[in-house]
Specification:
Blueprint (H helix, E strand, L loop, with lengths): L8 E10 L2 E5 L7 E5 L4 E9 L2 E6 L11 E8 L1 E4 L6 E3 L6 H8 L19 E5 L6 E2 L4 E6 L5 E5 L7 E6 L2 E3 L4 E5 L4 E3 L2 E4 L9 E2 L10 H6 L7 E5 L6 H11 L4 E7 L3 H10 L16 E6 L5 H20 L3 E7 L1 H14 L13 H9 L3 E4 L5 E10 L9 H7 L4 E2 L4 H5 L12 E2 L2 H11 L4 H25 L6 H18 L13 H23 L4 H5 L16 H17 L3
Parallel strand pairs: 8-21, 19-24, 19-25, 20-21, 20-22, 22-24
Antiparallel strand pairs: 1-2, 1-6, 2-5, 3-4, 3-6, 4-5, 7-17, 9-11, 9-14, 10-13, 11-12, 13-15, 15-16, 18-23, 23-24, 25-26
Length: 585
């Protein structure tokens, strides 16, 4: 929302200032109204009203703001601009386009009080109508399309709060987002631009049980702990365990139509890497630039804390807008712990009664409200769309018993627990297969059986059983050493090592290994299983485990992931393993 485009009036004056929290008196406002604070017109939001005292959280640095300065009320809640131009854009937490603000300031550092619309109000878009005069339209219906990027066709929708009606006039050609493209008999004019309050979920139909996976291109996730389109997942892990890289991998390679990436309170250099890398990356689905289907929201740790609290709402509202068009959207929030810390800071300045570890008592409710906006929906216009939400969690010291992790665990159905010990051993992604889980596996198995292989669940369960047995054997190995184990258990440890190193480990910075399609994920595991079957046959025939482990073909298993022409390579490798082991007996 632009200050220039909003009718404001001076309604009150500042009474006190405490960091991003400002109290005002004589302000005629409602909860969640957007106000402009002080002589510089800093954007803020009403978060508490008690008698004549109105409390405002300000989305910018408040140093220099003094009691007695004016507070102006817009009478509207915090909203986002929705329309063509959202994709290939980088915003701050309240949807101010950072590239536009940089051009205004001619500097990488933004002045306070500067503002700009969320989408370009002057750019003209080619509008292709989908309705004719006399057609009846209802809220959510598609009235036309716009080629927003080379990848995504933007569908212009009747606003959800519209009364609908009969089309009396339709335009075709190039228009700005504020020009009327469709008129209804009720007198309503439909434009390409909509506004929507960020804290209010956009209306949708029934939420359905998802049955299709969100393919991530990461073997440990697609193979062991899959997430559904419309599902929710959490990635908790201590500092340095790879949360951000894992999130970025999901944003780069997931097969969603639209990606919304929220950098919430993370270090500036990590967001810089995203901003620099994404425009250069090709989309594995289309070959077009990845940014052509991506919106980035950057609210780094040095940005105002209050805007951090609102950035996740900005992101999920944009995601809901594209869901309403019938697209599958993947939203990455990195990290929800920084969001919770922002809530804690605001809550403490409001002098609210603290809950566990100082977090506000409504922490669990806010997390639930956020994750509940994910799902696979029947839209009100008859289409289907989904929002998959993946939230990173940064527990202090890697303590998963802290409130944000525990409250997130109660909500999400997919848990990818990052392990500092694995990260120290340079095993990435450092997802601990013993602590992680997915409650989507059974409902997604039919898809994998139909699209990958009939025995996908059985092969996956074999890998899980081997890893479980390895975990039990490692406790014995630490006490008595590997050589004290029977040969069959020594062989199990060798097979588990290949599962860990060749299958679960994946190099995010290797041109080939960074992305692994489901067929390749399956074939790598079946190659390891081929070795397992042949090795145990040889062991039963009396071949010592040392000779089996010295088979020349085995080191090639660890190079499977980097093979581009993988099908022929794996067929040849399976034949070599079988032939060489059988020569031993």
């Amino acid at each position: 929302m632009s200050q220039a485009d909003t009718t404001v009036r001076e309604d009150g004056i500042i009474d006190s200032v405490s960091g991003p929290v400002v109290t005002a008196v004589d302000l005629d406002a409602r909860m969640n109204d957007v106000v402009y604070v002080g002589e510089e017109g800093l954007m803020g939001e009403v978060i508490e009203i008690e008698g004549d005292i109105t409390t405002v959280q300000v989305y910018e640095e408040t140093s220099g703001v003094a009691p007695g300065e004016p507070v102006e009320n817009t009478g509207e809640p915090l909203t986002v601009d929705l329309g063509p131009g959202l994709l290939d854009s980088i915003y701050d937490g309240v949807q101010r386009p950072l590239d536009v603000l940089q051009d205004k300031m001619n500097s990488a550092f933004l002045d306070r009080g500067v503002d700009a619309p969320g989408i370009d109000l002057e750019k003209e878009w080619e509008f292709v109508p989908e309705v004719e005069e006399g057609d009846a339209v209802e809220p959510g219906d598609v009235v036309g399309t716009v080629p927003e990027t080379v990848t995504i066709e933007h569908k212009v929708l009747v606003p959800p709060n519209s009364e609908g009606g009969e089309v009396t006039a339709v335009e075709e050609g190039e228009f700005t987002v504020e020009e009327t493209v469709v008129e209804l008999d009720s007198g309503e004019e439909i434009r390409m631009r909509q506004e929507w309050p960020v804290r209010e979920p956009r209306p949708a139909g029934d939420k359905k049980t998802p049955t299709e996976p969100l393919l991530t291109g990461q073997r440990v996730q697609d193979g062991l702990f899959p997430i559904a389109k419309g599902g929710t997942a959490a990635i908790p892990g201590p500092f340095g365990s790879g949360k951000t890289v894992t999130q970025q991998q999901l944003a780069k390679w997931s097969d969603a139509d639209i990606v919304v990436y929220i950098g919430c309170g993370e270090r500036g250099n990590e967001m810089t890497e995203v901003i620099e890398d994404f425009p250069e990356l090709p989309d594995p689905q289309t070959g077009n630039p990845l940014m052509a289907r991506t919106t980035l929201i950057a609210n780094t740790s040095n940005m105002p804390v209050a805007a951090r609290e609102s950035c996740v709402y900005t992101g999920i509202t944009i995601a809901e807008y594209y869901r309403d068009m019938g697209y599958d959207v993947a939203l990455m929030a990195d990290s929800t712990s920084r969001w919770a810390e922002a809530m804690r800071e605001i809550s403490s300045r409001l002098e609210e009664m603290p809950g566990e570890e100082g977090y506000p008592a409504y922490l669990a409710a806010r997390l639930s409200q956020f994750y509940e906006r994910a799902g696979y929906f029947d839209n009100i216009n008859g289409t289907e769309g989904s929002i998959s939400v993946v939230g990173a969690v940064s527990p202090p010291g890697g303590d998963f018993s802290e409130p944000v992790t525990q409250n997130t665990l109660r909500i999400v159905k997919c848990f990818w627990a990052l392990d500092a010990d694995l990260a120290e051993r340079r095993h990435f992604p450092s997802i601990n297969w013993d602590e992680s889980y997915s409650l989507y596996r059974e409902q997604l198995d039919p898809w994998f059986e139909e699209n990958v292989s009939d025995d996908w669940p059985e092969v996956r369960q074999w890998a899980v059983d081997v890893l479980d047995e390895e975990g039990e054997l490692q406790e014995i190995v630490q006490l008595v050493g590997k050589d004290a184990l029977p040969e069959d258990q020594q062989l199990t440890l060798e097979i588990a090592r290949y599962i860990r190193e060749a299958w679960l480990q994946q190099n995010a910075f290797h041109d080939v290994d960074t992305y692994c399609e489901p067929d390749k994920t399956y074939l790598i595991l079946t190659t390891i299983k081929t070795f397992s079957d042949e090795a145990f046959d040889a062991l039963e025939a009396g071949v010592p485990v040392e000779e089996i482990s010295d088979v020349e073909a085995l080191p090639r298993i660890n190079r499977i992931g980097v093979q581009e022409e993988y099908e022929a390579y794996m067929d040849e490798l399976k034949d070599d393993i079988t032939e060489q082991i059988r020569e031993l007996y």
